[in-house]
């Protein structure tokens, strides 16, 4: 086992990793920027080293040098920053320090979306219909689009985070979108390689947590539902998915394990799928790291994923057999973001922070009194995770927790989260990844919005609105209701 781990991250995930290390008897080294010098992870670690300017969490050489100076024998990257950077992984390993995550090769194989699609097809993992080779010209794009039918998506092979993606409704839009997507891909990812996928209308986002070890063992920890997203970022997740039954669960978890085997994956990872209204599922991508929403999986399985990560990196086997792990109860996670009602960032210095101490509630937080919330970082302040014997109890506990969560000096999305959780759309799980884009959830001051929201959601989910080559119909319906 490791003696000392450097955590090359900040906020709630740094604290989460420190907690796991303490339970395993491992010393920790935190790094922090000037803005973060009063953040909780700085005082929680055994050692803390200043890295200066706000973007220094991305400084590979500096992080590596601190690891060597402090005698850390492993680096945990958390999520974001250097967690999926194959060059950093190679540099860490070259310096005989253990990277707590997958191999650089696995990250590289899954990092190129087009290559990942081809790999999945070779291993019989269903992928969204589309191209398996880069689009070299408009003629090829037009031919493939005609074969799979509009609407389609043009995507950058090296894309991620919602960048380098463009929807095309019909043939007339294709040429302009083709040129623009290639240009955006080059600017954002250094390559103009793009490909085509059929657009899945009103999909749900279902993902499967997997683990692999160096001994060739693989296991899954069931699925999460992550469909409630704003601007391609999730804000509410739950496990298990209310839209997946045991038969489908067996199929989608099997596919996820096959995806992990296909790239010789070890450590923790997540295989993400889109599921259409007929419950067909398609591989979307693999996140080769720890996920923000991992606590809901921990809640229903009792498996500490971060401790598993560390043990696997140290050469141990996965600590359980697949048949030993079962789903017990239900869990919901809400991301508390510092943002206003328009999702614009809100900044300030926290002078009051009181987390709810209630039954069935866990709060993973990265800020406390004295913390500075700045524009330099992701708006995620903390995560509230509820657990119940069933979905209803988990929901009730979450609403109670949000009512009792106090953060001052910055605006947060807590009011929006409460409105979503109280809505019929959430209660009957009729949401999809476009719901937050198209539905204005009711406020107490304007309850009519709820009625309109339900109408829209029901129409969308039942497929009654037309998609005949023009997805703008979806938005137009909201305009007709005069709530856009």
TrEMBL record:
Gene3D superfamilies: ATP-grasp fold, B domain (3.30.470.20)
Keyword ATP-binding: yes
UniProt-recorded Gene Ontology molecular function terms: ATP binding; ligase activity; metal ion binding
Domain ATP-grasp: 117-314
Highest taxon, organism lineage: Bacteria
Keywords per UniProt: ATP-binding, Biotin, Ligase, Nucleotide-binding
UniProt xrefs under SUPFAM superfamilies: Glutathione synthetase ATP-binding domain-like (SSF56059), PreATP-grasp domain (SSF52440), Rudiment single hybrid motif (SSF51246)
Residue ranges constituting the Biotin carboxylation domain according to the UniProt record: 1-441
Pfam families: Biotin_carb_C (PF02785), Biotin_carb_N (PF00289), CPSase_L_D2 (PF02786)
Matching InterPro entries: ATP-grasp, BC-like_N, Biotin_carboxylase_complex, Biotin_carboxylation_dom, Biotin_COase_C, CPAse_ATP-bd, PreATP-grasp_dom_sf, Rudment_hybrid_motif
The protein, known as: Acetyl-CoA carboxylase, biotin carboxylase
UniProt organism field: Melioribacter roseus (strain DSM 23840 / JCM 17771 / VKM B-2668 / P3M-2)
């Amino acid at each position: 086992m490791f003696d000392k781990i450097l955590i090359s991250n900040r906020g709630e995930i740094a604290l989460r990793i420190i907690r796991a290390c303490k339970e395993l008897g491992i010393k920790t080294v935190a790094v922090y920027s000037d803005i973060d010098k009063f953040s909780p992870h700085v005082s929680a670690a055994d050692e803390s080293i200043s890295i200066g300017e706000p973007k220094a969490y991305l400084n590979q050489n500096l992080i590596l040098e601190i690891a060597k100076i402090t005698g850390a024998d492993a680096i945990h990257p958390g999520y974001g920053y250097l967690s999926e950077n194959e060059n950093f992984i190679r540099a860490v390993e070259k310096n005989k320090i253990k990277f707590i995550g997958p191999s650089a090769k696995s990250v590289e194989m899954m990092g190129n979306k087009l290559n990942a699609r081809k790999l999945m097809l070779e291993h019989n993992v269903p992928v969204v219909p589309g191209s398996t080779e880069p689009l070299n010209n408009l003629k090829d794009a037009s031919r493939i689009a005609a074969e799979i039918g509009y609407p389609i998506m043009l995507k950058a092979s090296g894309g991620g985070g919602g960048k380098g993606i463009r929807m095309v409704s019909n043939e007339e839009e294709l040429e302009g979108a083709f040129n623009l997507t290639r240009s955006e891909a080059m600017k954002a990812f250094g390559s103009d390689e793009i490909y085509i996928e059929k657009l899945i209308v009103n999909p749900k986002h279902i993902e499967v947590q997997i683990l692999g070890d160096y001994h060739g063992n693989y296991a899954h920890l069931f699925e999460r539902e992550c469909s409630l997203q704003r601007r391609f970022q999730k804000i509410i997740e739950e496990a298990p998915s209310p839209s997946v039954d045991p038969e489908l669960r067996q199929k989608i978890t099997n596919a996820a394990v096959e995806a992990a085997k296909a790239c010789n994956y070890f450590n923790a990872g997540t295989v993400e799928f889109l599921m259409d209204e007929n419950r067909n599922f398609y591989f979307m991508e693999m996140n080769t790291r720890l996920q923000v929403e991992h606590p809901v999986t921990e809640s229903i399985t009792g498996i500490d994923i971060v401790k598993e990560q560390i043990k696997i990196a140290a050469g141990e086997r996965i600590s359980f057999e697949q048949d030993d792990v079962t789903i017990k109860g239900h869990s919901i996670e809400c991301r508390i973001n510092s943002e206003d009602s328009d999702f614009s960032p809100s900044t300030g210095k926290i002078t009051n922070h009181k987390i709810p101490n209630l039954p069935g509630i866990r709060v993973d937080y990265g800020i406390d009194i004295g913390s500075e919330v700045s524009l330099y970082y992701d708006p995620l302040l903390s995560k509230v995770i509820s657990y119940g014997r069933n979905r209803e109890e988990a929901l009730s506990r979450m609403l109670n927790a949000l009512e009792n969560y106090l953060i001052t000096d910055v605006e947060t999305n807590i009011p929006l989260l409460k409105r979503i959780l109280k809505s019929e759309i959430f209660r009957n799980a009729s949401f999809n990844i476009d719901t937050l884009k198209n539905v204005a959830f009711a406020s107490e001051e304007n309850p009519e919005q709820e009625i309109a929201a339900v109408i829209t959601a029901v129409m969308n989910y039942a497929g009654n609105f037309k998609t005949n080559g023009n997805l703008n119909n979806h938005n137009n319906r909201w305009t007709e209701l005069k709530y856009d």
